[in-house]
C-alpha cells in the first residue's frame, strides 16, 4: 500500500492527501484519459535532490500534447510545484507521481469538454523489482503497442492496460516481469522498464521506433556508458539475442538498474550481474546518491530538513 504524505499539489495549490479525490463520472475513469510521470528524489548525504526533474516535466507536457491536452503550466512551473510538494511533505528519498487527466465534465468519448486536472503526489517508496540475485523474466505473449495504435512516446495511463497484461501474465507464471516484443517481433521493453543487452563489450538497446518509452533512465544510462567508454548501439534487436547475451538489464525510474538473471528459464550467461552492468549500476547509484559529483546537473535540490 502507498504510505500517504500530508499534501498533494492540485492545480497550483497544496491540499490534504485525503481531500485529493475525483468524481466517479470523471472522463479519465471511463476512457483512461490521463498522462503521468514517475520521478525519484534521492538523498546525497544530508541534502536531497530530484533526479532529472525538468526532463520528466518536459515528457509530461509532451505526453499531454500528443493527446491534445494543453497543460496550463510551463516546465519551470511544474518543476517548482514538485519542489513545493516534496518540501512541504519533508519526505526524501521518495517517489513523485505527477498526473494530468480529463476530469468531470462530459461523458462522451471526446474529452475536450472535460476539465484538465493536474495533481502531484510524493511518498516513500523502495525497490520496485526485489530480486537481489537478478530478475527471472519471460517474453510476453502480449505485444507492445503498435505504433499506429497507442503512441508509446506518450506516457499515458491507458498504455498501462497493455503493461498490466504483460506484468500479470508474467507474475501468474512465476516470473517477476515480462518483456514485450513489438509488432514486428523485435524486442521492445518490459511493462515498465527499458531493456538493455550486452554482447562482446557492446551495449544494445531498442530504438524509439520499436514501441518503447523514451525512458529518462535509459537516456541517463546511455550517457553514463559513453562516459565509461562503453559503446552503445540503438538498433532493432531480435528476440533470440537476449538468450545469447552476455548480460541484460532493465532501467527505469522505479526499476533503476536491475540485472536480469534468466529469460524464459534460459540463464543469461552464468546468471550473475556481469561487469558492464555492474559498472553502469554502480556509477548510476554513485551519481544519484552524491558519491560522484553531479557532473550532468541531474539533481534539482530540495530542502527536506
Ligand atoms: N518503459 C515503460 C513502459 C515505462 O513505464 C517506464 C517507466 N516510466 C520506462 C520504460 C522507463 O522510463 P523512465 O526511465 O523514464 O522511468
From TrEMBL:
Q: Which cofactor does it need?
A: pyridoxal 5'-phosphate
Pathway listed for it? Amino-acid biosynthesis; L-leucine biosynthesis; L-leucine from 3-methyl-2-oxobutanoate: step 4/4; Amino-acid biosynthesis; L-isoleucine biosynthesis; L-isoleucine from 2-oxobutanoate: step 4/4; Amino-acid biosynthesis; L-valine biosynthesis; L-valine from pyruvate: step 4/4
Q: Which GO terms describe its molecular function?
A: L-isoleucine-2-oxoglutarate transaminase activity; L-leucine-2-oxoglutarate transaminase activity; L-valine-2-oxoglutarate transaminase activity
Q: Which Pfam family, any one of them, does this sequence belong to? A: Aminotran_4
Family in the record: Belongs to the class-IV pyridoxal-phosphate-dependent aminotransferase family.
Keyword Transferase among record annotations: yes
Catalytic activity, per the record? L-valine + 2-oxoglutarate = 3-methyl-2-oxobutanoate + L-glutamate; L-leucine + 2-oxoglutarate = 4-methyl-2-oxopentanoate + L-glutamate; L-isoleucine + 2-oxoglutarate = (S)-3-methyl-2-oxopentanoate + L-glutamate
Its BP terms in the Gene Ontology are:
isoleucine biosynthetic process; L-leucine biosynthetic process; L-valine biosynthetic process
Name by which UniProt lists this protein: Branched-chain-amino-acid aminotransferase
NCBIfam families in UniProt: ilvE_I (TIGR01122), PRK06606.1 (NF005146)
Amino acid at each position: 500500500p502507498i504510505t500517504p504524505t500530508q499534501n498533494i499539489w492540485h492545480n497550483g495549490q497544496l491540499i490534504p492527501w485525503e481531500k485529493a479525490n475525483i468524481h466517479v463520472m470523471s472522463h479519465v475513469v471511463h476512457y483512461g484519459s490521463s498522462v503521468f510521470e514517475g520521478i525519484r528524489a534521492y538523498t546525497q548525504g544530508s541534502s536531497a535532490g530530484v533526479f532529472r526533474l525538468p526532463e520528466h516535466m518536459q515528457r509530461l507536457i509532451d505526453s499531454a500534447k500528443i493527446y491534445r491536452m494543453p497543460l496550463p503550466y510551463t516546465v519551470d512551473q511544474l518543476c517548482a510545484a514538485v519542489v513545493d510538494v516534496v518540501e512541504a511533505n519533508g519526505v526524501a528519498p521518495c517517489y513523485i507521481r505527477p498526473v494530468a487527466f480529463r476530469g468531470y465534465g462530459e461523458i462522451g468519448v471526446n474529452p475536450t469538454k472535460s476539465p484538465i486536472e493536474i495533481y502531484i503526489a510524493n511518498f516513500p517508496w523502495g525497490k520496485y523489482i526485489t530480486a537481489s540475485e537478478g530478475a527471472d523474466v519471460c517474453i510476453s505473449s502480449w505485444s507492445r503497442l503498435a505504433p499506429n495504435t497507442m503512441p508509446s512516446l506518450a506516457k499515458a495511463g491507458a498504455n498501462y492496460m497493455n503493461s498490466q497484461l504483460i506484468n500479470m501474465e508474467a507474475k501468474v507464471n512465476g516470473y517477476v516481469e515480462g518483456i514485450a516484443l513489438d509488432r514486428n517481433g523485435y524486442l521492445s521493453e518490459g511493462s515498465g522498464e527499458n531493456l538493455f543487452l550486452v554482447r562482446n563489450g557492446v551495449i544494445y538497446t531498442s530504438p524509439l521506433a520499436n514501441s518503447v518509452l523514451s525512458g529518462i533512465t535509459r537516456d541517463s544510462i546511455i550517457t553514463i556508458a559513453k562516459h565509461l567508454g562503453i559503446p552503445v548501439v540503438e538498433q532493432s534487436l531480435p528476440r533470440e539475442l537476449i538468450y545469447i547475451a552476455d548480460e541484460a538489464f532493465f532501467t527505469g525510474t522505479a526499476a533503476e538498474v536491475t540485472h536480469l538473471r534468466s529469460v524464459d528459464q534460459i540463464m543469461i550467461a552464468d546468471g550473475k550481474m556481469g561487469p558492464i552492468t555492474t559498472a553502469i549500476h554502480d556509477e548510476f547509484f554513485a551519481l544519484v546518491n552524491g558519491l560522484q559529483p553531479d557532473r550532468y546537473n541531474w539533481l534539482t535540490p530540495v530542502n527536506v530538513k
